[in-house]
Amino acid sequence: MVKMEDLEKKLFDQSWTYKNREKIIKKMQSSQYDVVIIGAGITGAGIAREAAMRNLNVAVVDMQDFSAGTSSRSTKMAHGGLRYIAYGETNLVKSAT
């Protein structure tokens, strides 16, 4: 299994802001991925985490910012839910739904 520090670097190595969007898109276009996840809600984030834990090269794409759609409104836990998933606290996410 991957260490948490390595996973965080893999998941959060770029600052996903509008200022970096073009740079990130160019990097993604010139890279190869084992898994491409369409949808950056809580389900997509969980799948991305699991794939990254298995040392797969993962890309997550969405038409909006991460957790901006249904995940931002359904449980009111998108931010906390992502944090819980990153630390493996899936029972907390499950109990919040």
From TrEMBL:
Transmembrane segments: none annotated. GO terms for molecular function: glycerol-3-phosphate dehydrogenase (quinone) activity. InterPro entries: FAD-dep_OxRdtase, FAD/NAD-bd_sf, G3P_DH_FAD-dep. Residues 34-88 form the FAD dependent oxidoreductase domain. Its cofactor is FAD. GO terms for biological process: glycerol-3-phosphate catabolic process. Belongs to the FAD-dependent glycerol-3-phosphate dehydrogenase family. This is FAD dependent oxidoreductase domain-containing protein. It comes from marine sediment metagenome.
